[in-house]
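User: I'm writing a short report section on ligand binding and want a predicted complex to refer to. Could you take this sequence and magnesium ion and write out the structure as tokens? A short remark afterwards would be nice.
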Amino acid sequence: MKDNSAILTIADVGYRVGDTTILENVSFTVSPGEFRLITGPSGCGKSTLLKIIASLLSPTSGRIFFDGKDIATLSPEHYRQQVSYSVQTPALFGETVYDNLIFPWQIRHQTPDPARLIADLERFGLSQETLTKSVSELSGGEKQRVSLIRNLQFLPKILLLDEITSALDDVNKRNVNDIIHRYAKEQNIAVLWVTHDVSEIEHADEVMRLQPQGSQKRETHRG
Ligand SMILES: Nc1ncnc2c1ncn2[C@@H]1O[C@H](COP(=O)(O)OP(=O)(O)OP(=O)(O)O)[C@@H](O)[C@H]1O
Ligand SMILES: [Mg+2]
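Assistant: Sure. The structure tokens for the complex follow:
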């Protein structure tokens, strides 16, 4: 469901490192429940843009507004609970999958029911034994899904997804795709999904193509 009021406004964002322009004049808005794809050639700045939106990098020009407030004025901890970023190469920590999945609960001083964690694993095609597996034993695609499940323990308002299915087979890609679409639709979560393969993801509201050097072009609109 779409809402006309923007939850996120990217206003003329640029990012330069020394003499190199990585992003220039990137502007768009995102509404609650909107499902937006961001694509473009390798090195064009897609991950940099998501890191800026996640407040992990500061833009060198322009501003970003979340719920009408400049994110530079918001507490990063609070902001990152509302705007969660699933990174391109997920880093897991601790010893087991369980250590990772309980982390979002620990920072909120809560303890999850293990049955809920197992249900989450199974929803993403991972067996219940995965919960106690050592993170060093996981495949790339298993790591991607554990990292995503960790980020979905407490639902944010905006999900930033950076090529989160790149290591998955087609069946798992479709499953992740379905689950994320359901979140957007049923929980009104806005999704910004970076992918190289636009055909992999169905029913986007908007597909935005970043050009090298960062200026963006709206490619298609599939309501
Ligand atoms: N801290 C940095 N200093 C210098 N250059 C950087 C820095 N971070 C990123 N870059 C450069 O910025 C460009 C964009 O990088 P980015 O990771 O955003 O690309 P991408 O579009 O996500 O690529 P891919 O599709 O391969 O993941 C690249 O040329 C990269 O080398
Ligand atoms: Mg990238």
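A remark for your report: The chain has one domain: 8-220. The pocket of magnesium ion (ligand 2) is lined by residues 46-47, 88, 162 (CB under 6 Å).
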